[in-house]
Structure prediction request, 668 residues.
Amino acid sequence: MTVNPSWVLRSHPTAMPTPDNWTLEDRAIPDAVDGELLVKTMWLSVDPYMRGRISPAKNYAAGIPLGGLMKGGGIGEVIASNSPDFKPGDVVISDYFGWQPFSTIPAGSAKIVDTVSAPAQAALSYLGMPGLTAYFSLLKTGAPKEGETVLISAASGAVGQIAGQIARIRGLDPVAIAGTDTKVAWCKELGYRAGINHRTSTDLVGDVAAACPNGVDVFLDNTAGPLHDAAMLNLNTFGRVVIVGTIALADKFDKPDIGMRHLRQTLITRARIQGFLLDDFEEDYTNAAADLLSWHQQGLLKTREDIAEGIEAVPGAFVRMLKGENFGKQLVKL
Amino acid sequence: MTVNPSWVLRSHPTAMPTPDNWTLEDRAIPDAVDGELLVKTMWLSVDPYMRGRISPAKNYAAGIPLGGLMKGGGIGEVIASNSPDFKPGDVVISDYFGWQPFSTIPAGSAKIVDTVSAPAQAALSYLGMPGLTAYFSLLKTGAPKEGETVLISAASGAVGQIAGQIARIRGLDPVAIAGTDTKVAWCKELGYRAGINHRTSTDLVGDVAAACPNGVDVFLDNTAGPLHDAAMLNLNTFGRVVIVGTIALADKFDKPDIGMRHLRQTLITRARIQGFLLDDFEEDYTNAAADLLSWHQQGLLKTREDIAEGIEAVPGAFVRMLKGENFGKQLVKL
Prediction:
């Protein structure tokens, strides 16, 4: 093992990314300059939004230049601190971990992780970005009313597994779309009333109609693609569609997405279709995280992690997640 | 001239409607049964939503069966009343006028027209459905903030001509898209800051960018089609897109609309895309109509009508309007 094997972006993918888009370079353990922390990486998170970071196009996530160190969410232990807010031994979370064992991160991007209430990696999963995304996308942007049918794509994924359970807790009627029978079965264990395997369905529009006999009131769209069509064509009057993710476009990310446009359906249903970004809800994180922790402690939130091991595994884990081959929140343990 | 020449739907159009989709049948002057009024038609209105009435598919407007009398908005004088709320001589407006000189309409659909404050036909234009559509779609669903750029398609049409002037009155920055240079020039006279002729533009995305140097905050989409793309690709963060009409789909109404889907753009901008139907704002009509009348009386609302004459002209006027060949609110005077 070299000192600090670090994944560097070698090429911008033009279709589905492959591990060859990165190359592992040995790097020195970096020095933390003023306002930075040197951290020893414990966990790395691979998330759909990171597809945008390796695109040359404008996205909400800062782009990684060719030859640049790949970055993403992570948890690590502070080795050296050049910030008065942190000290060695602190366990911190940040969106700016390098894909490397030793990383420097801006202190302003770091937060102390509560390792007492839950395992550290929960901060990358149900207590962190995916859990908060589920919470705000469903309860705020989706604005569901009691008893409404909530259709959720990528339902066993990091966001979907939490969203379905929040829907159940709040007296809604959650219906899952997932990519294997095993995932659908697990979604039902979580509290989803019904589920559809979109990879074996031969009639997604009809299967959504059958699973949602009262129509779809809220659709949490984690994927875009054909699942979006199936939901739109079953949408109720005044339905709400929250665009949370577009992972089905991972293989044609910078190309136009050509397909059915639903403008007449939007008009007829007076649907509200709205893009979602978690950052917009930052001032409400504390209350939401407290709800999530409380539900977890009451046994109301079950979660599932899919853990890869070692720095070598990171690009493969990222690509697996983009292809939907993971089962639960995809993490890499170092 | 026969007694009551009436336009009957002969076939459902599968592409752009033509006058041949209707046939003129002589009918007797009908009797008003209980709860109905017999009216002598003075004005008929042809409006984009009526494309839905002649489609076999489910729409928000009640469908006309084959062989059935074509219906739409109109103004007429009550000849005989079977309702205590109306008397002969009243001038009334309803969405259920037949395309015929003498019509029976449900009294519940009729309202007395104020012929003192404005010409009667204003109730089919800036004081009626198109004016109210402009008012609520812009001010309520669009929810603009002062100084924001509002892009409006079909900008010289019945809705667009009013929406642009309301935008100006409310301190917004309206930009027009219309189909001829003459229409664009007239939009600027109305108060639109800039305008684009979409029929001569060779780069709609670039022309919208040039006309909206601060980006598009609110887009009133009266057309769907390529104009929708040009707006979406120039949309600002937290932009609002109000789907008011889909007239560009009039020639492929019951077929899937295939084209660019803007789900990533929606996600990145956190856009809100929302379907609009005037009926949803019924309880606020009175205040809105008072604003429109007041602005008109202050000289702040200029309007333009495109008037065809005679019952024979109705289907042709409707098709002309669908093709964008009208200039201003299309009416037929009987």
Chain B touches chain A at residues 58-60, 221, 224, 228, 243-246, 249, 253, 256-264, 266-277, 280 (CB under 8 Å). Residues 77 and 307 of chain B are 19 Å apart (CA to CA). The domain at 4-125+304-333 of chain B is CATH 3.90.180.10 (Quinone Oxidoreductase; Chain A, domain 1). Chain B has two domains: 4-125+304-333, 129-279.
